[in-house]
Amino acid sequence: MRGLRRLTAGHLRRRLDNGAARRTSHRLLSVSSSSNNVISRFTSPTSTSLAPYLHASSGLGSFAEFWTGQRRTMFIQTQSTPNPLSLMFFPGKPVMEVGSADFPNARAAMNSPLANTLYGIDGITRVFFGSDFVTVTKSEDVSWDFLKPEVFAAVMEFYSSGKPLFLDSATSTSIDTAIHEDDSEIVAMIKELLETRIRPAVQDDGGDIEYIGFDPESGVVKLKMQGACSGCPSSSVTLKSGIENMLMHYVPEVKAVEQELDIEE
């Protein structure tokens, strides 16, 4: 995973203005794709009520432009992740106001209209919400060429519907790294490192980490990988060489970091 490899190298990149950077890449991508004549116009495959949109691909990724008459209503860009089965979709609008949300199965997605709709697409195995992106994970036997238009249409339909991202706002955000009064100094330090130093790098790769707990007797920190990081071929290695090394360096009481897998895994 690219973000964790940066941790392994000891270089934690300062987060730039992602919004401005992505807007720049949008413009470059649009020019590049148009000049290569790879744009095709077609109608949404999942809803006849949606307007036609442009879909294009280039070396920088792919995007979809949704139009209502002569007015562009949404611009969705995709970005690859270290996990070949996961793809990040940037709707050009905020997704999660605070934190992140992971939906490892269809049952977990029932609280979110958007996640529930995405799980209705054949071949989708996981959905994750970040601050300004949606990470979709697919099964190995389905092509992105088939899934991208379906996901584009589902995201467009959701933002056009005015529906809330969550039906129950109380369960909408993760507070796993919130520091509580009864947390020990060690646990507080672990949570702060995860939130400020490790989580930003992991989220750059379309995923997140969830703090499960710390055993003071064994010195083991348990984490759960989410989004594109879950099931990524390099996640187990980088979990040890990246996250574990950093936590052990700053918190000597930490002796190891272990990954807690989903029940399905």
From TrEMBL:
Domain spans labelled Scaffold protein Nfu/NifU N-terminal: 76-162
Signal peptide residue numbers: none
Pfam family of the protein (one): Nfu_N
Instruction: Give a GO cellular-component term.
Output: mitochondrion
> What InterPro entries does the database record attribute to this sequence?
FSCA_dom_sf, Nfu/NifU_N, Nfu/NifU_N_sf, NIF_FeS_clus_asmbl_NifU_C
Task: Tell me the GO BP annotations in alphabetical order.
Answer: iron-sulfur cluster assembly
What GO annotations for molecular function exist for this entry?
iron ion binding; iron-sulfur cluster binding; structural molecule activity
* Highest taxon in the source lineage: Eukaryota
Q: Which SMART domains match?
A: Nfu_N (SM00932)
Alphabetical list of SUPFAM superfamilies matching this protein: Fe-S cluster assembly (FSCA) domain-like, Hypothetical protein SAV1430
UniProt lists the family membership as follows:
Belongs to the NifU family.
User: What is the role of this chain?
Assistant: Molecular scaffold for [Fe-S] cluster assembly of mitochondrial iron-sulfur proteins.
Protein's recorded name: Scaffold protein Nfu/NifU N-terminal domain-containing protein
| Native species | Deinandra increscens subsp. villosa
Output the lineage of the source organism: Eukaryota, Viridiplantae, Streptophyta, Embryophyta, Tracheophyta
